[in-house]
Amino acid sequence: MAVNVSNIVVGEAVVKTGNSNVSMTNADFDALTDVGATSGGVEISWEPDMVDIEIDQYGDAAKVIQSRVKVMVKTTLAESTLNNLALAWSYDRADNGQDIIADNDGANTKTFLFGSQSVYPREYALQIRGNAPGASATVARARKFNTKRAVSFTSSMISMKRAEAAMFEIQFRILPVTEDTNYEYGKIIDATA
User: Fold this and answer.
1) Which of 3, 146, 153, 193 would be a feasible disulfide site paired with 173, CB 3.0-4.6 Å?
2) What is 124-180 written as a DSSP string?
């Protein structure tokens, strides 16, 4: 078996977010807002739910079908800004947007306004950018995961502890865009040169 060590990918990733827009281009994804440092890496998972179609003659599955799939992105936001908390809790994370207001509670303040939410969670666009095969200390090659519809999908909390950094765990459920035939969940793009 031939081994190509340049195909072994290591290194951290940059996570960018913005408002969901089903007509986004690659340039639009590159212009999203960086959430800053992460801890523990970033995971993108494909989670199929398989069903056995059993028949009497086999006493086992004659076929296996995929009944549904979940695509998830998981990370921990290491920069405990109000903007990142708003993202984790499915609010508008933009400065002076709907939920993050400057000088709302006096001069030189930033306030995160959170209250009851609609049954429809806020949708974000995401870009995860890391190293691609062939990247090295002297060669820059990027792998980008771009998705147009992501929903913050898990519980998250603020913690303030004496000897630990405050971080926000976050999981996004990736939703399909029906107009994007054959790439409804997004694209993974590797630079090859």
Assistant:
1) 153
2) EEEEEEEE-TT--SS---EEEEEEEEEEE-S------BTTB---EEEEEEE---TTS
Between CA 58 and CA 52 the distance in angstroms is 12
155-178 in b/e form (b: 16+ CB < 10 A) is ebeeeeeeeeeebbebbbebbebe
Structural class in CATH, domain 11-190? mainly beta
CB 113 within 8 A of CB 104: yes
Q: What angle do CA 69, 93, 165 make, to 5 degrees?
A: 85
Q: What does the domain layout of the chain look like in residue ranges?
A: 11-190
Distance CA 69, CA 104 (A): 43
Rg (CA), the chain: 20
The DSSP H or E segment spanning 126 is strand 123-131
The sign one gets for the Cα dihedral 86, 46, 76, 187 is negative
7: helix, strand or coil: helix
